[in-house]
Write a structure and sequence with these properties.
The structure is a homodimer. Chain A has about 110 residues and is an alpha+beta fold. The first copy, chain A, has a single domain, classed as Orthogonal Bundle (Arc Repressor Mutant, subunit A). Chain A is built from 5 helices and 3 strands, in the order H-H-E-H-H-E-E-H. In chain A, strands 1-3-2 form a 3-stranded antiparallel sheet. In chain A, a hairpin with a 2-residue loop joins strand 2 and strand 3. The longest helix of chain A is centred in the last third of the chain and has 21 residues. Chains A and B meet through helix 1, helix 2, strand 2, strand 3 and helix 5 of A and helix 1, helix 2, strand 2, strand 3 and helix 5 of B. The first copy, chain A, binds a DNA duplex (30 and 30 nucleotides) through helix 3 and helix 4.
DNA sequence: AAAGTATATCGCAAATATACGATTTAGTAC
DNA sequence: GTACTAAATCGTATATTTGCGATATACTTT
């Protein structure tokens, strides 16, 4: 049991769920905010700001990177991370159209809310 | 180790992460869409639509309910679920302001994207 | 080359999520 | 009452996430 059934859903649903998952931890929300604030950032400064160990921050960064929301380049002995604007915008669009779909269809009266 | 450090982040960040988590599975996305479409729904019909066992669907419904995104009332031997409009709208607002915060601060040129 | 610095990866432990079948609960119909 | 139906919960297996320390990698400085 517990085989992943995610493939059984539509590409759109999977993509949205993946983006949501990337945002599903406060540390990653905080990282994105911090990256946006500085618009140029290294992991070390994030470690100072976040209440997590260096290795844990690095892991969260990797997850954001795998989701495509941030881009990282090696910059000497440091790394430079920033928000991947185009991917982020796409994610926002996905969320927006999902929210819109829910809201417009929801116009008729509900049964129990 | 692996103690939950989520409390170490701001309420806002935690709340957004919680909502994101609720949306972090395609089954739950699909459930929300289906509920919005019908605007009145019982678990059984969802089981027919989704490629999951009844108990699994019930579990996903509970997660959505715990996140506050849907409301459920007992309706005879069946249950009636629908989207919790006000909570959903709040969630949308949280996402929107987060996205806006990222985008506006991101205005300056990036370093590596 | 050697030492230092910054980040990534490894290895592990614990927590949480995912999924199902089996069972329980709760109401309806007979 | 008993039988039926629908949904929730329980128990369990497996997968994934979270977190840390330790180690490895990679570049810089001396």
């Amino acid at each position: 049991m517990a085989i992943n059934k995610k493939e059984a859903f539509s590409q759109e649903e999977q993509a949205l769920a993946t983006m949501a998952k990337a945002l599903a931890h406060p540390a990653r929300i905080a990282i994105l905010k911090e990256l946006a604030k500085r618009n140029e950032c290294i992991c070390g400064e994030l470690v100072d700001v976040l209440p997590l160990a260096q290795s844990t921050v690095s892991q969260h960064l990797r997850e954001l990177k795998e989701a495509g929301l941030i881009a990282g380049t090696i910059d000497g002995p440091k790394s430079c991370y920033c928000i991947n604007e185009s991917a982020f915008r796409k994610a926002i669009d996905s969320f927006s159209s999902f929210f819109k779909e829910i809201e417009t269809r929801q116009k008729a009266a509900g049964c129990c809310s």
